[in-house]
Design a protein that fits this description.
Number of helices: 13
Order of helices and strands: HHEEEHEHHHHEHEEEHEEEHEEHEHEH
Number of strands: 15
Distance between the termini: 28 Å
Structural class: alpha/beta
Bound molecules: glyoxylic acid, manganese (II) ion
Strand content: 15-25%
Shape: globular
């Protein structure tokens, strides 16, 4: 099938008709439909699909042997996410297999298509949860009791979706069998368009993390509680959001409060608590730490002023990632031979490739995003660029899985 044909099939699943954004949260009905679609497509191509202990999907082209060449991405989304972040890599992988089959290519090392679970951490808070569990950098017991905003644990969500959470944990044998992982992904940011390049290669990923701030005050009546008597957690939270912006601007970092839960969330009540999640990223780990420390001490001072208590907890952290230089050079040479110049870019976005990079030679291929907007229904890549991505991926797989 062509990229466009595959894309059209997946496109409606989990899309909100009002916003046009995707709500493909892990272990929900939309997620089940995406997984079933992927499994069905893989089966149509004669690939053997397996779910690993952590809910990640692996579709094998060729018998299991060491040195597998893995490509893929994720199918889950952020709230009202774009169509491309994740699915572009999965659909391109299927389309690349079709291109290779059309030319009767037969892999010497298995080509494996992967779809990782809970990459965005949109439901259970820890991004790249499926690949982190696989790599053994998240404790399975801690993962099982992660909760979504409704209080459902990951374990219960998996059981409700018909998957056993009892065996979550490292997949050392699986990882040992991987010779290379290449994740194709929509560009997030706008570097390729001004360079006139349809494709790019990742140099590395900025260190980044998530911190949960809980501001606890006292609920009260919005009409009768005197301003001076209030312990309103919204006020230190609001000032902390501004402080985060300033702390990031002062250091060349980025810091975002993108998720806030207000309790009890009544128009005519002073809130009892505000829970807010800080996402902070920078080129250097020390800059991320310094930014977060600055935001935290601003929040502490503001809470004291307002009679509010504060607790802060780090929920995830990803150190600086540098992708494998030798693999990137080999891919660049393959692309150059096909007449494609792919600039090398750093990124502030997290990826399963960033987690796997600690264990296997890993590379990323970016497809131009003309506006750079991502994590938004406005995220976009032109069809011609997606097709160029598929051709490039097919050439990369042919080289990596072909005769040595
Ligand atoms: C994933 O897209 C992230 O960078 O948060
Ligand atoms: Mn994303
Ligand atoms: Mn992604």
């Amino acid at each position: 099938m062509t990229f466009a044909e595959l894309w059209r099939e997946l496109e409606p699943i989990g899309r909100d008709p009002q916003t046009g954004g995707y709500r493909r949260y892990s272990w929900t009905e939309a997620d089940a439909q995406c997984r079933a679609w992927f499994t069905g497509q893989a089966a149509k191509r004669g690939l053997a699909v397996e779910t690993d202990n952590n809910g990640n999907l692996w579709a094998w082209w060729g018998p299991k042997r060491p040195g597998a060449v893995v490509t893929g991405s994720h199918l889950d989304s952020v709230p009202d996410g774009g169509a491309f972040d994740g699915p572009l890599g999965v659909v391109s992988a299927l389309a690349a297999v079709d291109l290779l089959k059309d030319k009767d290519f037969s892999p010497e090392r298995p080509v494996v298509l992967a779809a990782f679970t809970e990459e965005e951490g949109a439901r259970f808070g820890v991004p790249c949860l499926g690949s982190r569990l696989l790599a053994g950098v998240v404790d399975p017991d801690a993962a099982r009791v992660l909760t979504d905003d409704a209080g459902t644990t990951l374990a219960d969500a998996m059981i409700a979706a018909g998957t056993d959470p009892g065996d979550l944990g490292p997949g050392d044998d699986l990882l040992r069998g991987i010779g290379a992982f290449v994740e194709l992904h929509v560009e997030q940011g706008r570097a390729l368009a001004p360079m006139g390049a349809a494709l790019g290669l990742a140099e590395g990923i900025w260190p980044h993390g998530r911190w949960r701030f809980v501001f606890s005050g006292r609920a009260d009546h919005a009409g009768t509680a005197r301003l001076t008597d209030r312990r309103d957690p919204m006020l230190p939270y609001a000032a902390t959001a501004l402080a985060a912006r300033q702390a990031a601007a002062d250091r060349g970092a980025v810091a975002t409060f993108g998720k806030v839960i207000v309790e009890p969330n009544g128009t005519n009540a002073v809130p009892s608590a505000v829970r807010a999640w800080l996402d902070a990223r920078a080129a250097d780990e020390s800059v991320v730490e310094d930014t977060v420390t600055t935001v935290r001490s601003a929040a502490e001072g503001l809470c004291e002023e307002h009679g509010v208590t504060l607790s802060v907890r780090q929920e995830s952290f990803t150190p600086l990632v540098r992708f494998d230089q030798a693999l990137r050079d080999r891919i660049a040479a393959t692309l150059a031979a096909a007449g494609v110049q792919a600039p090398v870019l750093p990124t502030g976005a997290g990826h399963d490739a960033g987690v796997l990079a600690a264990r296997v030679p890993t590379a990323m291929l970016f497809v131009r995003n003309p506006t750079g907007v991502s994590h938004s229904p406005a995220e976009h890549a032109d069809l011609a660029d997606c097709e160029a991505g598929v051709r490039a991926l097919a050439a990369i797989l042919e080289d990596l899985a072909g005769p040595a």
